[in-house]
Amino acid sequence: MTGLLVLDQLPKIWVRSHWPLNQSTVLVPNFLAFTHVENRGVSFNILGDLSDVIRLPLLISFSLLAVVMLSVYWYRQREQLSFWMEWAFLLIIPGATGNLIDRAAQGTVTDFLYFHFYDTSFFVNNLADILISLGVVAYILGTLRPDSPQA
Questions:
Q1: Does a structural domain hold residue 62?
Q2: Is the alpha carbon torsion for 8, 10, 12, 15 positive or negative?
Q3: Is residue 150 part of a domain?
Q4: Among 41, 48, 57, 59, which residue has the least CB neighbours within 10 Å?
Q5: How many domains does the chain have?
Q6: What was the pLDDT predicted at 73?
Q7: Domain range for residue 61?
Q8: In this structure, is residue 58 part of a structural domain?
Q9: Model-level pTM?
Q10: Catalytic-role residue among 52, 102, 111, 147
Q11: Which residue pairs from 66-74 have beta carbons closer than 8 angstroms and sit at least 24 positions apart in sequence?
Q12: How far, rounded to the nearest angstrom, does the alpha carbon of residue 29 sit from its chain's CA centroid?
């Protein structure tokens, strides 16, 4: 988990210090660009328009509560979890922690992977968001295959 957290944080630190805000460079034409944005809210900037006095305590406390609850549940149940459920927690916890660190330290979450299809924009995210998404997929697979053997 620590390795995934470091893999999330190092590029964010580099982006914040070396890449101008809103500057974009194409990585894969019509699909992926490297674009530095600061997300004030959660997914798709939800709650990003709230004032900092409300937004930061709300998002930081919610994120912290989620990370603590997921970690405690994983720690207590890890021996009974299926392979997919174990992976779900091992991906979601460092992802959520990475974005929590950003919110607490910067007041925003640094995103830089801009996914789009020609002129249709999908989202700009980071490794933490990808880890959370993969963790959710693993969790769904775990619910569909609850009796899968643990690795």
A1: yes
A2: negative
A3: no
A4: 57
A5: 1
A6: 95
A7: 2-144
A8: yes
A9: 0.87
A10: 111
A11: 66/96, 67/93, 67/96, 67/97, 67/100, 70/96
A12: 24
Please state, as a whole number, how many other Cβ atoms lie within 10 Å of the Cβ of residue 21: 11
Annotation marks residue 8 as catalytic: no
Catalytic residue, from 49, 52, 119, 129: name it. 129
Task: Give every CB contact of residue 37 below 8 A, 6+ residues apart in sequence.
Answer: 21, 22, 110, 111, 112, 114, 124
In a domain, 151, yes or no: no
Two structure tokens written together for 126: 């980071």
pLDDT in tens, 10-43: 999 999 999 999 999 999 999 999 999 999 878 7
129 carries an active-site annotation: yes
Q: d(Cα 41, Cα 56) in Å, to the nearest integer?
A: 9
- Answer whether 74's CB lies under 8 Å from 89's CB: yes
pLDDT for 52: 78
Q: Which pair of tokens denotes residue 130?
A: 């990808």
